[in-house]
């Protein structure tokens, strides 16, 4: 009897694996994955094809040129300023948003009473649903004028760092302002994902720490944060993906210029998405190819960022929740 039981189990599992419902579900799942890969490949091929056409007609260096004039004779365009502005504004947004999002997520999940936690979580969810153009209008009408005082304070007390040295006067339509606006926009995304990860921490871990005499902060430091590291990284990458590709809000707030400046408070700059939105309608056929070429670079940067995040999570075993 003991020899036939494993055989019976294997036969039953084989029969259950060949049921029509299982085959249909397996086929649909596999087809969905293949479809996603085909779509990504099609986008990459299309962008690459149009990029080759654009670069073949440009006599300058696509990666180092500081000018954008595809309609000129000869046509000239480069992504140096756009890459700089996209990366800098996204870094500013992440530096501001990630610590604040983690703090809000911890407060909602471990500090706030239930009567306050649920409405606060609902408000954070609503922030994620606000259209980007609304953020842009709010930033242009409210944020830009009220940041003038902050810019003066930073220039006065932190101007020695060169980064916050305001070399040119003008309204606060700078990469620093864009970074603050992007931080507000990506804050709900990072907060929601991080909060859900923190709520999945095994209660036994927290109760064991409390039983050993740990304070609430020590419980969070020893149990919650180690368990949620992979979730924090994933949430940050989701927020960074939106910051890199944000279009309308940046286009409304930023004063575009094709100059690279290390002074974050100076008006001007540009990003990939903002430049595409601002110039696509008036561009000729070759100009659209040039914009698509810049879109390919943004596409590649986004893939590299997400790939790096997955590599970090996979390489560091301690980022796994099971190892907490």
TrEMBL record:
Alphabetized, the UniProt keywords read: Cell membrane, Membrane, Phosphate transport, Transmembrane, Transmembrane helix, Transport
Localisation per UniProt entry: Cell membrane
Q: What is its main location?
A: membrane
Looking at the UniProt entry, the stretches that span the membrane are 33-56, 76-108, 120-148, 174-194, 243-265, 290-309
Which stretches make up the ABC transmembrane type-1 domain?
83-309
Which superkingdom, per the lineage?
A: Bacteria
> Which membrane topology term applies here?
Multi-pass membrane protein
Coiled coil located at which positions? none
Q: Name one Pfam family in it.
A: BPD_transp_1
* Task performed by this protein: Part of the binding-protein-dependent transport system for phosphate; probably responsible for the translocation of the substrate across the membrane.
* UniProt family annotation: Belongs to the binding-protein-dependent transport system permease family. CysTW subfamily.
Q: What is this protein called?
A: Phosphate transport system permease protein
